[in-house]
Amino acid sequence: MLTCKELVAHSSDYLDGQLTLRQRLAVRAHLAMCGNCRRFIRQMKLTQAVIRQMPEGELPELDTLAERLAQSRRNQG
Question: What sequence ranges are listed for the domain Putative zinc-finger (predicted)?
Answer without folding.
Answer: 4-38
